[in-house]
Write a structure and sequence with these properties.
With 467 residues, this protein is α+β, with helices and mostly antiparallel strands. The strands form two sheets. It has a five-stranded mixed beta sheet with strand order 3-4-5-7-6. The chain has a two-stranded antiparallel sheet with strand order 1-2. Strand 6 and strand 7 form a beta hairpin. 29% of the residues are buried.
């Protein structure tokens, strides 16, 4: 069905995203479309690419790659060869360990260079870990067992031939293109000889060819312009390979990255659970508990007055009866906030319809699920939609809203859309940012699209786990 209005991160190209469902309204657009920029940004991308900072940074990345890769290659090959040849003695072990340690140093340089010139932020791989007080032998053993260190060494060997090729291609296209394109500006440096001026392309005892007439000069400059316009895209193709090599061989292992993500997600889950417990305690203390304490006091007073003033005691009991009803309603609301019974009994369709009925604007709910997901995922989906509809009620100034839930492959998709004023943002400290963190803890995604004049569309994506 519809594609939602808000969003936290742009994952529209990921498998399973809501591409299989058209939006209800074409009025919504994804954040980042923006208005045309000023200056160079008004030119087509292919025309402004030769003078963009990105192109120059990629060019200098390739120029620096060759000398660095030569030094890295010489270090890797020399130290590894010496270390392997000396393994017949114990000396080869520290030599190989030193080779791997040096490779990690070169890897740190390459990551910094990729970060500064390519904008590629590759995480620092896990360090070599040894037992406390293990000494040099423990360090050498841990270094030789480190797969990360061997990947760095492999990078030094593989990157050298690629850097040589990329350097040659980048320098050739760059210098040739700009030299031909600017030829009309520097042709004067060639001296006049026998009535000929300009660059000589060919010459022998019988005839010669000079670039000296307006037509030839114009053709030369045009050919140079074509090469100049093509060079940025060639550079981007070359640096794409560099990005893959740096990210694949010099970054942390997938297992280590996943461990870090899980540790972070576990922290978010723990913090969220603690915050929920504090909220429940506060609601009980300030709401139902305080009301029950007052109720007990009123019943005590009514008991004292029962003998001497039965009418007053009856009024106090009647008031206490009203307080009991209010306390019960507060407890029901609190229980619904923990986990609504309708969700457990009847699933998302009925539970979200109940939430929508309490929204201050009319909400159309469409749940298209052939089966129920796991209870944990179902609960997260329920509270996600509930919080988004609260935002609609409090901030959107909308006249209507829609809620769509469907399954796309192995993902559960949620979408909440309203026709309000827009401007919703998932910045740090906002409710949407907190919601995105909670979804991320279970490998979920939140995408917010809310241009200033509206409409607002929020799409949430959760992993599908069967009950």
């Amino acid at each position: 069905m519809a594609t939602q209005q808000y969003g936290y991160r742009d994952h529209r190209d990921e498998p399973g995203f809501a591409a299989d469902r058209p939006p209800r309204s074409s009025a919504g657009r994804y954040a980042g479309g923006g208005s045309p920029g000023r200056g160079l940004n008004r030119l087509p991308a292919w025309l402004r690419a030769p003078v963009e900072g990105r192109t120059w940074r990629e060019f200098w990345y390739q120029m620096l790659s060759l000398p660095i890769s030569i030094a890295f290659f010489v270090w890797a090959v020399t130290m590894t060869s010496v270390g392997v040849s000396l393994l017949i003695t114990f000396i080869g072990v520290p030599v190989l360990a030193a080779a791997l340690a040096g490779a990690r140093g070169f890897g740190a340089l390459e990551r910094a260079r990729a970060r500064g010139l390519l904008g590629l932020d590759v995480g620092t791989p896990e360090p070599v870990r040894t037992r406390r007080g293990g000494g040099p032998l423990a360090w050498m053993g841990a270094t030789l067992k480190s797969g990360v260190s061997w990947r760095h060494l492999l990078y030094g060997v593989l990157h050298f031939p690629w850097a040589t090729f990329a350097f040659s291609v980048a320098l050739t296209f760059w210098t040739t293109g700009w030299a031909l394109f600017t030829y009309p500006l520097w042709r004067w440096i060639f001296p006049m000889y026998a009535g000929q001026a300009g660059l000589q392309l060919y010459g022998d005892d019988h005839h010669s060819v000079f670039l000296d007439n307006p037509f030839e000069i114009a053709v030369t400059s045009l050919a140079g312009l074509l090469v100049v316009l093509a060079t940025p895209w060639i550079l981007r193709g070359l640096t794409t390979v560099d990005r893959l090599m740096v990210g694949g061989l010099l970054g942390p292992s997938r297992l280590a990255t996943r461990v870090v993500e899980l540790e972070s997600d576990r922290g978010v889950v723990v913090d969220t659970a603690a915050a929920d417990l504090r909220r429940i305690e506060r609601d009980l203390h300030d709401g139902a508990q305080a009301r029950l304490v007052g109720l007990a006091m009123e019943l005590g007073l009514a008991k004292e007055k029962l003998a001497e003033d039965p009418a007053a005691a009856a009024r106090m009991v009647d008031e206490a009866h009203g307080e009991v009803k209010t306390a019960l309603q507060e407890l029901r609301d609190l229980a619904r906030g923990i986990h609504p019974a309708v969700l457990t009994d009847r699933g998302l369709d009925a539970a979200l319809s109940s939430v929508a009925s309490r929204c201050t604007v009319p909400v159309a709910v469409d749940v298209d699920l052939g089966e129920r997901p796991a209870a944990a995922i179902e609960g997260i989906a329920y509270f996600t939609v509930s919080e988004l509809l609260q935002n609609v009620s409090k901030h959107s100034r909308a006249t209507r809203a829609t809620v769509d839930v469907w399954r796309s492959g192995e993902r559960l998709m949620l979408q909440v859309q309203d026709d309000g004023v827009g401007g919703a943002a998932a910045g740090a400290g906002s409710g949407l940012a907190g919601l995105a963190e909670r979804l991320d803890a279970v490998d979920g995604i939140l995408l917010v699209d809310s241009p200033p004049a509206g409409p607002t569309r929020v799409t949430a994506e959760l992993p599908w786990r069967r009950a």
